[in-house]
Specification:
This protein is α+β, with helices and mostly antiparallel strands and 89 residues long. Helices cover 36% and strands 24% of the residues. This is NUMOD4 domain-containing protein.
Length: 89
């Protein structure tokens, strides 16, 4: 995926935008620090996704889907964010 610091800047820049999981579930996220807080249907999901989680997942790219992110937290959201054109390009 190239320079991860640039990927993280894009992740931060697109906080609040709508993203979709591979199954089409919509979600948004906030980045209050070196982690993400995911919101679905107006409710914050009780889990933080760390910058380190994204760095390790980015090292596994390209990937066919979230199932390849064994051991990563929030694989559906992580994969959706990393494969989104706003983040990937």
């Amino acid at each position: 995926m190239g320079n991860f610091d640039e990927v993280w800047r894009r992740i931060r820049r697109h906080a609040g935008g709508t993203f979709h999981t591979i199954t089409g579930l919509a979600f948004t996220y906030g980045v209050p620090g070196n982690y993400l807080r995911v919101t679905r249907d107006g409710n914050e999901v009780n889990r933080s996704l760390s910058k380190t989680n994204f760095r390790r997942a980015a090292e596994m790219m390209p990937s066919d889907g979230p199932g390849s992110f064994n051991g990563r937290q929030g694989p559906s959201c992580t994969w959706a964010i990393l494969t989104d054109a706003r983040i990937r390009d």
